[in-house]
């Protein structure tokens, strides 16, 4: 299993039910050597680096808990005058069979940097 597994809701339409799932490949992986997906809906792409804010928490990353943590993180960004994207990423680091109270998760939000 790769870690983290990232779920992100469409930033341009937060009311949408459309989510994207991303997998972080191990350090040292080269893009050309990754296995090709069997499903045409799965797309491999290399992303540029970016600046984000994050908070971590333990427990199952339920919709309610993840939303609460995201709101807290956005409030902290607002207090510090940090401009953030509408996108929220839920990063899960543990397999689903691990007991929920042991799960480590992060909420990650991209930051807008001034030009």
From TrEMBL:
<dbReference type="InterPro" id="IPR011256">
    <property type="entry name" value="Reg_factor_effector_dom_sf"/>
</dbReference>
<protein>
    <submittedName>
        <fullName>Unannotated protein</fullName>
    </submittedName>
</protein>
<dbReference type="Pfam" id="PF04832">
    <property type="entry name" value="SOUL"/>
</dbReference>
<dbReference type="InterPro" id="IPR006917">
    <property type="entry name" value="SOUL_heme-bd"/>
</dbReference>
């Amino acid at each position: 299993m790769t870690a983290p597994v990232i779920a992100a809701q469409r930033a341009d339409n937060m009311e949408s039910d459309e989510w994207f799932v991303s997998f972080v490949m191990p350090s040292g992986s080269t893009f050309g050597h990754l296995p090709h997906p069997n499903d045409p809906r799965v797309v491999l792409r290399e992303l540029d680096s970016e600046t984000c804010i994050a908070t971590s928490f333990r427990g199952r990353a339920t919709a309610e808990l993840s939303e609460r943590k995201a709101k807290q993180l956005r409030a902290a960004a607002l207090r510090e005058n940090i401009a953030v994207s509408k996108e929220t990423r839920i990063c899960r680091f543990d397999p689903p069979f691990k007991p929920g109270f042991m799960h480590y998760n992060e909420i990650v939000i991209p930051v807008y940097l001034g030009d």
